[in-house]
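Researcher: I'd like a candidate sequence for this fold, 327 residues long. If you have to choose between options at a position, lean toward the conservative one.
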C-alpha cells in the first residue's frame, strides 16, 4: 500500500505534451480539479525547442496543421494569443495551400499557451500507478505519491505500459496485445549553428525524399532564430542503425550528408535522440479506456493520428471518456 505524500486531485494527467494539456484543459473546464505531472523541465513533450547561444531550434515537431474544425479553433486561439504564426502553405512546385503553423517564438510557445491556467508539476517522473477501490496513486521516482479519482496517461504507449506494469495494473489480454503492438519511429535530431546563412531558401524547410535525412530546416529562414541554425531529422532507418553509436559521430555523418544545403561551416552542433518520435501504427480508437473503476485512460498521438493535431484530438477524447464515467 502506497503512502500519500504528494497532492490529491480529481484527475491526474501524466504528461504535459499536447495530449495531456488538451485533456487537462477540457477536464478543468468541466469543473474537475486537475493536476498535471511531467518528467521534463518544461511543458510540450515533442513540441520541443532549444537554444545554443544566440541560435534557436525547433528540434521536435516542425509545424502544426489543422484538418478538423475543433483543432482549427484551438490554433486560431493560439494565433490570437501570439503563440503561433503562419509559416507557409506547402513547398516545391505544388504548394497545397494547407497552412503550416510555426510556434511563436518557437514550437514550445503552443504548449506554454495551453498550460497557462493549469496546475502542472514538472521534473516529476511517474514510475508506477496503482489502484485502490476508488482511487489511483501515482508514485514518482523520488517516492512522492499523488492520488486522484481518475488518471489520463499520455506518455508514448510503451512508457505508459511500463508505468502500468510497475504498478501491477491488470489489462485485458486483448487490450494489452493491442497496445503492445504500437511501435514508434526513432529520430536522431541534429541542431547545428552555422557560421553564415545556409542555402535553404524560404520557407526554409524540406524533406529530401531519399538518403539518411528525412527533414532539414533553417530556423533563421523559418523566422525563429536570430542566427543561422539548422535542424536535421534523420530517417527512421538511419536512426535505428546509429542509435547505440557515438552521437557526435552520427551527427557528423548527417551534417556531411547535408553539405549541399548548409553552404557554411558548422560552428557547433548537438544531437538529440527521439526514441518515440512518431507512432508507426495508430490505434482504432481516439483513446484507450483501460479501466473504469476508478477510470484510467491512455491518450496521445498513437490514438488519433501521428501529429500534434492527433495528440490534441486524443486528449479531448480522453477527457470526454473520464467525464462520461463520472456522470
Ligand atoms: C522529430 C519529430 C518531428 C515531428 N514533426 C511533426 C510535425 O512537423 N508536425 C506534427 O504535427 N507533428 C510532428 N511530430 C509529432 C508530434 O510532435 C507528436 O505527435 C505530438 O507532439 C505528440 O504529443 P503527445 O502529447 O501525444 O506526446 P508527447 O509530446 O510525447 O507528450 C508526452 C509527455 O509525457 C511526459 N512523460 C513521459 N513519461 C513520463 C513519466 N514517466 N512521468 C511523467 N511524465 C512523463 C513527457 O515528458 C512528455 O512531455 C514530430 C515529432 C518528432 C519527434
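Model: Candidate sequence:
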Amino acid at each position: 500500500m502506497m503512502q500519500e505524500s504528494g497532492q490529491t486531485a480529481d484527475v491526474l494527467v501524466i504528461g504535459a505534451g499536447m495530449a495531456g494539456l488538451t485533456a487537462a484543459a477540457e477536464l478543468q473546464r468541466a469543473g474537475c480539479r486537475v493536476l498535471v505531472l511531467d518528467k521534463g523541465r518544461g511543458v510540450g513533450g515533442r513540441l520541443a525547442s532549444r537554444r545554443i547561444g544566440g541560435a534557436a531550434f525547433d528540434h521536435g515537431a516542425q509545424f502544426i496543421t489543422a484538418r478538423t474544425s475543433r483543432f482549427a479553433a484551438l490554433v486560431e486561439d493560439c494565433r490570437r494569443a501570439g503563440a503561433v504564426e503562419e509559416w507557409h502553405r506547402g513547398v516545391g512546385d505544388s504548394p497545397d495551400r494547407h497552412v503550416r503553423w510555426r510556434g511563436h517564438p518557437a514550437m514550445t510557445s503552443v504548449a506554454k499557451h495551453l498550460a497557462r491556467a493549469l496546475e502542472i508539476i514538472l521534473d516529476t517522473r511517474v514510475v508506477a500507478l496503482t489502484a485502490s477501490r476508488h482511487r489511483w496513486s501515482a508514485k514518482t521516482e523520488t517516492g512522492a505519491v499523488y492520488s486522484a479519482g481518475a488518471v489520463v496517461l499520455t506518455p508514448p504507449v510503451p512508457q505508459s505500459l511500463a508505468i502500468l506494469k510497475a504498478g501491477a495494473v491488470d489489462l485485458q489480454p486483448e487490450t494489452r496485445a493491442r497496445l503492445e503492438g504500437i511501435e514508434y519511429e526513432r529520430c536522431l535530431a541534429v541542431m547545428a549553428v552555422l557560421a553564415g546563412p545556409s542555402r535553404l531558401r524560404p520557407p526554409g524547410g524540406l524533406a529530401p525524399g531519399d538518403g539518411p535525412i528525412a527533414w532539414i530546416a533553417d530556423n533563421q529562414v523559418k523566422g525563429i532564430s536570430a542566427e543561422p541554425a539548422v535542424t536535421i531529422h534523420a530517417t527512421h532507418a538511419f536512426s535505428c542503425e546509429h542509435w547505440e553509436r557515438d552521437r557526435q559521430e552520427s551527427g557528423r555523418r548527417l551534417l556531411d550528408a547535408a553539405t549541399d544545403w548548409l553552404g557554411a561551416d558548422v560552428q557547433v552542433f548537438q544531437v538529440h535522440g527521439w526514441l518515440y518520435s512518431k507512432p508507426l501504427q495508430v490505434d482504432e480508437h481516439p483513446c484507450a479506456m483501460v479501466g473504469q473503476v476508478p477510470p484510467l485512460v491512455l491518450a496521445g498521438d498513437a490514438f488519433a493520428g501521428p501529429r500534434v493535431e492527433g495528440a490534441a484530438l486524443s486528449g479531448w477524447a480522453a477527457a470526454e471518456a473520464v467525464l462520461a464515467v463520472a456522470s
